[in-house]
Specification:
Elements: E1 2-4, H1 5-29, H2 35-53, H3 56-59, H4 62-85, H5 91-103, H6 105-115, H7 119-146, H8 151-176, E2 177-178, E3 186-187
Parallel strand pairs: 1-3
Antiparallel strand pairs: 1-2
Helix pairs in contact: 1-7, 1-8, 2-5, 4-5, 4-6, 4-8
Length: 189
């Protein structure tokens, strides 16, 4: 497989836009969860990430990087859909899906750095991420200040936008990787 750097940069920017837009919503969604849930979830996350790290030797290839990236982005799409279908009472399910996604965080960061290791490429990736995050946080703040409604209504409406954005992110992931047996695994625009 080959990574198309231009598409990958778009994916990273969109992914961070999603993170910026959704950050405030989590405080509303998780409001009813007991503090112990976060401790237990954090413990499960750490144990699973530790176990996953033992598999890095088998997983540090572009094909696995693609498969896991696609898996976690589809899982996030499901997460947004869960909230849209059942905004009340879905906090624990949403938290569990987020924890599942976070299990792969260290692997994805390591693989990204390994496969996209040129300093210029890393600069472009981190810049795209920060621009996306800043845009998402700004848009989120503007949305909450302009849409005067109960918090739960604000968060539900925002999730309709997040669903469309996440579907675009999934498409960007698939556009970022191409099947190619070439030993070169990067493709620059």
């Amino acid at each position: 497989m080959r990574i198309k750097v231009g598409w990958f940069l778009a994916y990273k920017a969109l992914n961070s836009l999603f993170a910026g837009l959704s950050l405030g919503a989590l405080f509303v969604i998780y409001a009813d969860l007991e503090p112990s849930v976060f401790s237990i979830g954090g413990l499960a996350l750490a144990v699973c990430a530790l176990l996953l790290a033992q598999l890095y030797a088998q997983m540090m290839n572009v094909r696995s990087f693609f498969a896991i990236t696609a898996l976690i982005e589809v899982a996030m799409l499901v997460n947004v859909a869960v909230y849209l279908v059942r905004p009340n009472g879905a906090a624990l399910a949403i938290y569990c899906i987020y924890q599942f996604i976070f299990v792969f965080g260290s692997y994805l960061l390591r693989a990204e750095t390994l496969f996209l290791s040129a300093v210029r490429t890393l600069t472009l990736i981190d810049s795209a991420k920060q621009i996306g995050y800043i845009a998402g946080l700004g848009a989120s703040a503007l949305f909450y200040s302009l849409y005067d409604a109960p918090k739960t209504d604000q968060v539900w409406l925002l999730h309709t936008v997040l669903f469309a954005l996440q579907a675009t992110i999934v498409a960007a992931v698939f556009a970022s990787f191409t099947r190619d047996k070439s030993p070169k695994y990067l493709e620059y625009p």
